[in-house]
Amino acid sequence: MITPSPAPAKSAYLPGVPLLRVLGATAVVYTHLASWYTARGRAWTVADLLNVSLVESLHLIKDLEVVGVSLFLLVTGLVVTQAATKETPGQFGARRAVRILPALWVAVAVAFPLVNSGLLRPGEGTGPVGPLTLLSNMTLVEFFLSPHVILIGSTWTLVVQVAFYAFTALTIPILRRWPWLVPALGATVCSVVLSLVWDARGMAYEWIGVIAAYMPMIFIGQVVALARSGRMPTWAAAALGTGHFLLFVKADMIGRYVAIGDARPRTLFVVVLVVLVTMNANGRLASHPATSTLAARTYSLYLVHQMALYPVLDALFPVWGELPALAVGLAVTVVATEVVHRFVEAPVVRRYRDWEKRRRQRPAPRHRRAPESRGLARS
Amino acid sequence: MSDRASPRAPLSLDMARGLGACLVLYSYVVALRPDELGSQLTVVGTVRAWLNRPLGIGEDFGFFGLALLLVAGGYLAAAAAAESGVRGVLGRLLAVYPPFAFAVTVAALLSQLGAPTLSVPRDAEAGLSDWLASLALLGNVRASSVVLLELSWITAAEVLFVLCTALLAPVLRRAPWAPVVVKLLVVAVVVASGTEASGVHRGLTLVVLYTSFLLVGELAWAVRAGRLPTWAGVLLGCSSWLCLAWAERKYRELFGWWNALALFYAAIVFVLMVRFWGGRRSGRATGWLADRAYALVFLQGTVGWAVLDLLHRLVPVELAVPLALLSTVGVAEISHWLVERPAGRLARRLSGSTSGGGWTPDDDDTVVLRAVRT
């Protein structure tokens, strides 16, 4: 029997998380860059080299597809679980919304004219699009509509993350008292949902299935975080983690939700091992200021890299050649990331935290005394 | 984490060797041989569908188990070299070779009785010369056509690695990185030059290639003991892995076996074991299993297969498999008491100390601890 463990027994701090975030961001940008080359029928020496040496030897998916996404989802489970144990459900939901929505809105608003002018191909569907599509992209509702036009392809993982945030907010009281029960419940819910929707038709069912297929990745991050902080015995974490991995294998067997390549479970396992090895890293690289600076900007980079890179490469590659086009494309990506982080993401989070602080410091309103009722209550 | 301050890793080493042995037993006795006999266990099919195929671990975890055993062997050899130099590291031979020799002898006797064993060629009828050639590991360098134990390549790789480590042990104290770099260079050069080789040269090349598994273990020890910075360990570890990954593309014997993936898994799992269980002492069960790891690995293809072949015609395979496993464990116990323990005592006597020098099944802790103190 697993006993309730209300407070963390060990330090939950994971010094390697910023490094993992940087690795995840690098992998995502690399994969999308390689995809650009493939889509335009061009060869890229870097991708060829990595595919021959690393990808084929580890039997992963070409261009390290899904490595970055798996890393991000696992890190989400690691980090969000730590936060959830310290916050109320409302506070948790509001903080996550403030963290992801404003930057998403700005990125989608910038992608809107780029898609309509033909400078950027949408992630799914074909442009041009109207204001309603813009609105449904900003709220992520577009994923559940058919036919749909997704302005920024990589935002699909936010659908999975938002579902996990909602689940976590609802289960915070359970997470505090019986931490092991939350990932166990998560496995049950994912399993039931996959059983219900695997043969249902319609875009909404399709995306509900995608959420149920990918949530196990985040739950694996969650069980690692709970075991690391001493709130769950290692054997229980291993059992629950294995359960979630097998759920992902099941989703892969269904084939409808995890359809790229035949190596997704293997990629997930490799990434889990990398996370376990790296999460406690506290060497020079992990603790370098550049790592934390880059890590803070990974969400902005995740949102803007495709719309910064692709139009620049499309315009400059045929004229200037590979290296100058790549250099300018990456420079534009860095600038766009910095702008979104510095002027949208960071200030909004800062102001919200300031508002939270002021709210906490405000003296509590005095209640009018009700001697009769107090007396009654006492008696 | 106090990994550096407390570098003892007995539980991690015992876990690695014990897990490696269990996976080999599962692979050859529970999964592969019943398959060959046409009576597959249901659980094996399920495990293959849900774990082996998704993870890309072939041969029913067997090669992964052997990889774990070799990585742990490299770790122990490096620790012994640091603790008591040439004599200490040569003591490792007395840990590896005697259970192998015992199993080869059992295999030769069983083949005389006509029992099927895991040999090359399969079910070979061995004479005295084959027994002697197998003992001398000649089949692994293709100097003999019969190999009485198919898995004897792990002994060949480990013996070669131990001899190289002993040769380079005097350099270890002055330049801790030198032995690893030299061994890595040798592996790279030999493997690169052997792609078109045949006969003895090719056999030797493959044995040299498999020492890269032990090299990964040595690197894990060097980083843990503070002899090598982490970045250098990672870099050299990746280079060792790349040697195998490259060879997998160039050597037809390795093509399609996904050995590089197995080594990657084994290396990371071993590093995680050392990292998270490095400071814990081994329990009785894990210690017992680790002490008999080599005997179990070598005897499963002789005793285990012979018993399985005998029983599967008489009883259901669900009963024959546990009985074959029990028989293997029983003979491994005999090997441990008759061969491994006396060999351990001899190793201690040769190294000239009562507490360490040679490796024995009982003194891993001492070796690892003392290795780091020096």
TrEMBL record, chain A:
Q: Where is this region: Disordered?
A: 357-379
State one Pfam family annotation: Acyl_transf_3
Question: Is Iron among this UniProt entry's keywords?
Answer: no
List residues of the Acyltransferase domain. Answer: 19-336
**Keyword Membrane carried by entry:** yes
Q: Which GO terms describe its molecular function?
A: acyltransferase activity
Q: Domain of life of the organism in this record?
A: Bacteria
The residue ranges flagged as biased composition, category Basic residues, are: 358-369
| InterPro entries listed in its UniProt record | Acyl_transf_3_dom (IPR002656), Acyltransferase_3 (IPR050879)
This chain's protein is named Peptidoglycan/LPS O-acetylase OafA/YrhL, contains acyltransferase and SGNH-hydrolase domains
Q: What is the lineage of its organism?
A: Bacteria, Bacillati, Actinomycetota, Actinomycetes, Pseudonocardiales
From TrEMBL, chain B:
- Give the superkingdom in one word: Bacteria
Recorded protein name is Peptidoglycan/LPS O-acetylase OafA/YrhL, contains acyltransferase and SGNH-hydrolase domains
- Show the GO MF annotations: acyltransferase activity
Record organism: Streptoalloteichus tenebrarius (strain ATCC 17920 / DSM 40477 / JCM 4838 / CBS 697.72 / NBRC 16177 / NCIMB 11028 / NRRL B-12390 / A12253. 1 / ISP 5477) (Streptomyces tenebrarius)
Per UniProt, which keywords does this protein have?
Acyltransferase, Membrane, Transferase, Transmembrane, Transmembrane helix
The organism's taxonomy opens as:
Bacteria, Bacillati, Actinomycetota, Actinomycetes, Pseudonocardiales
Q: Which residues cross the membrane?
A: 12-31, 61-82, 94-115, 151-169, 176-194, 200-221, 228-247, 259-277
